[in-house]
Design brief:
Length: 290
Amino acid sequence: MMSMLAPVRRDRIIAELPQCFHKESALHSRSSFHPQVTGACQEQRTGTVGFKISKIIVVGDLSVGKTCLINRFCKDTFDKNYKATIGVDFEMERFEVLGVPFSLQLWDTAGQERFKCIASTYYRGAQAIVIVFDVNDVASLAHTRQWLADALKENDPSNVILFLVGSKKDLSPSAQYSLMERDAIKVAKEMQAEYWAVSSLTGENVREFFFRVASLTFESSVLAELEKSSARKIGDVVREYLPRGRWDPSQHHHWLRWVTTEQGRGRAPPPRCPRGTLRLWGREQPRPLC
Ligand SMILES: Nc1nc2c(ncn2[C@@H]2O[C@H](COP(=O)(O)OP(=O)(O)OP(=O)(O)O)[C@@H](O)[C@H]2O)c(=O)[nH]1
Ligand SMILES: [Mg+2]
């Protein structure tokens, strides 16, 4: 499927971890990708690191600038006229992270109360939640907690990463912005979200923000997959007891040795091994139970 797609745009290639906006409320402040992620990508363990897509939902009060933020990044456009999103809109953005193709599905949801019901049906299965507020509107910051609570009803809180984004920074004089930032960082810390402030009008921090979203989402999804398969790393020899027929524990200790492969061809593995990842290696002589 990949070969039919055009190559990823040169300005969507991420080779290094982009830095956070504010160290005080960053998801993490490491200067580079997790070493296990870098290693997996370098070795091109395709069983683990294949073509990946992550779903990102963007929520927040009406007119805070969700659509403008996505349009600035995906289309490099800005519309000063407000057109309410009805239900949801969707954009797909392709990246290459550490040499691995990676896409973000960006779900732009409606902030208007009357469309909320439709929009919330699209919340499920998100890898990241982006909660947007307007840095010139204190109420929109206060409402972010409710937006988060609603989005988390449809998602597993331990499996999503969160971003709190202050929009329309261009409209905020710096003294006023500083006051707002203090409160926003407090909320972000409470939520365990990473804080950003952007302007879709000028483009300030928009690209940096989405690169950070892509990088951290990619990193966490690779880490999750590595963790899942850590017991069965490729090349690992796995020993399994396999009682056969009339099994007598004092005499017949049949062992099967399996080696994890990328292709996973061969006979069906024992039930507790993930299908398609193990290959029968051979049968050892019966040996005493130890
Ligand atoms: N000055 C300025 N105006 C902005 C910025 N972002 C958005 N706006 C304006 O704010 C208004 C609302 O923007 P939208 O992006 O449509 O808001 P939304 O959050 O998608 O609203 P809903 O779809 O109703 O939930 C529009 O008039 C935009 O032009 C910004 O960064 N700076
Ligand atoms: Mg919108």
